[in-house]
Amino acid sequence: GKVWAQSSSPVPPHGFPEAFPSQDLMFNRGRRASSHDVFLGRDPCEVTGAPLGRAGSTPVSSAWLGRFTWPRNIVSPGALRAGEVYYWRVDAVGADGVVKGETWCFRVSAGGEDDLDVPWNMATGIHSCATRPAG
Question: What is the pLDDT of residues 65-86, one digit of tens each?
Fold first, then answer.
């Protein structure tokens, strides 16, 4: 299949309404990426507007979880708040520079780990999360 310059195939999928409070983030590698900068937060503007990363371990934004060297494509952000919408972005970092990723979102289940209300085909009344605040 096609390998995109930016990271792709987020897990949880974009707009997913019932993620676990202990949800790991997973993604496919961007083409020729040797590492990835991962951002996560509840403010879509902060995640989308976070500057492109730079070498080293200096945070580029409060939403920055870190730079993860390939083949690591699973990131554990820690406990997430039940009922909250989270936004995340993965930038592909390679020898040619940084390719900014799309901003994805998911909602954390308001129930417990075993209390998910999403049917097997993920058909819900929630189609997507906004990536910008209304206004």
Answer: 999 999 999 999 999 999 999 9
For the 8-108 domain, the top CATH level (class) is mainly beta
Residue 1 has pLDDT above 80, yes or no: no
pLDDT band at residue 8 using 50, 70 and 90 as cut-offs = very high
Per DSSP, the residues of the chain read ----SS-EEEESPTTEEEE-TTPPEEEEPPTT-SEEEEEEES-HHHHHHPPPP-SSS--SSTTEEEEEETT--EE------TT-EEEEEEEEEETTEEEPPPEEEEEE-SS-TT-----TT---S-----SS---
Q: HSE on the CB side for 34, CA within 13 Å?
A: 5
pLDDT confidence bin for 127, thresholds 50/70/90? very low
Token couple for 93: 């970092």
CA 88 to chain centre: 3
Pick the closest to residue 53 from 103, 87, 92 (CA basis). Answer: 92
